[in-house]
């Protein structure tokens, strides 16, 4: 069950999870995508970033967060003293919604189990939810604004989850970078404590 996210040792490795879904057609995005964007990074990462869904660049390359927002995320990871390869980066939806429209409830419903499998395989120490959509979906708090959710740890089946603003939002509202820096500093503090203790 979901209670085992942090402790289950019978999880499938990421490669197996990917092979089982690489030709997914559980929703209509399977017919409009160019590439499925599974996620990438360290399979034993202490920190996982979860975004919303692939955009145009990600759909073309089959990799998460490689467009303008992705470049900003890469900078944030660097400012945390980490490299992209140290962490794991993925999305709630693995396929691009046409025109980057918001994910539909039925798309989330069929796709979220793949993310849950990924998180069970990686068993991170911390999850960072990027933006309203990832935060509300993972925390089952539809309707609660990111301004309210961000800035403190929530419990995701035993794993501390920090919601923060999406990097695409920061591109439009650079002033909010200050809050994101505060949020990721809280993450860095927990990671450092676990490293030394
Ligand atoms: N925005 C997201 O939420 N995810 C990506 O992979 C790219 C942009």
Task: Summarize the structure in short.
The chain has nine helices and six strands.
Ends apart, CA distance between termini = 29 Å
Radius of gyration: 16 Å
The CATH class, by name, is Alpha Beta
| Residue windows where pLDDT falls under 50 for at least 5 positions | none
Instruction: Based on Cα principal axes, name the global outline.
Output: globular
- CATH topology (level 3) name: Uracil-DNA Glycosylase, subunit E
- The SSE string, one letter per element, is HHEEHHEHEHHEEHH
Describe the structure.
The structure is a single chain. The chain is of the alpha/beta class and 197 residues long. It has a single domain, classed as 3-Layer(aba) Sandwich (Uracil-DNA Glycosylase, subunit E). Helices cover 44% and strands 13% of the residues. It has 9 helices and 6 strands. Strands 1-3-2-4-6-5 form a 6-stranded mixed beta sheet, with helices on both faces. β5 and β6 form a beta hairpin. The longest helix has 20 residues. The structure holds uracil (URA). The site of uracil has 13 residues, from α4. Uracil binds next to α4.
SSE map:
Layout: H1 14-21, H2 29-32, E1 40-41, E2 47-51, H3 56-61, H4 68-79, E3 88-91, H5 105-122, E4 126-130, H6 131-139, H7 146-149, E5 154-156, E6 159-164, H8 167-172, H9 177-196
Parallel strand pairs: 2-3, 2-4, 4-6
Antiparallel strand pairs: 1-3, 5-6
The chain binds uracil.
Uracil binds at residues 51-55, 58, 64-65, 67, 69-70, 91, 168.
């Amino acid at each position: 069950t979901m209670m085992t996210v942090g402790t289950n040792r019978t999880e499938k490795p990421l490669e197996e999870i990917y092979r089982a879904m690489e030709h997914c057609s559980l929703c209509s995005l399977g017919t409009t995508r160019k590439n499925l964007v599974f996620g990438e990074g360290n399979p034993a990462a202490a920190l996982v970033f979860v975004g919303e869904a692939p955009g145009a660049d990600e759909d073309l390359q089959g990799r998460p967060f490689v467009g303008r927002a992705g470049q900003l995320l890469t900078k944030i990871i660097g400012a945390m003293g980490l490299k992209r390869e140290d962490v794991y980066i993925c999305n709630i939806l693995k396929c691009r919604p046409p025109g980057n429209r918001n994910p539909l409830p039925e798309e989330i419903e069929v796709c979220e189990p793949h993310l849950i499998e990924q998180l069970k395989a990686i068993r991170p120490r911390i999850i960072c939810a990027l933006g309203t959509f990832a935060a509300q979906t993972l925390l089952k708090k539809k309707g609660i604004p990111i301004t309210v959710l961000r800035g403190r740890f929530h419990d995701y089946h035993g794993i501390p989850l920090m919601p923060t603003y999406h990097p695409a939002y920061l591109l439009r509202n650079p002033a909010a970078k200050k809050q994101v820096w505060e949020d990721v500093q809280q993450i860095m503090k927990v990671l450092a404590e676990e490293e030394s203790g």
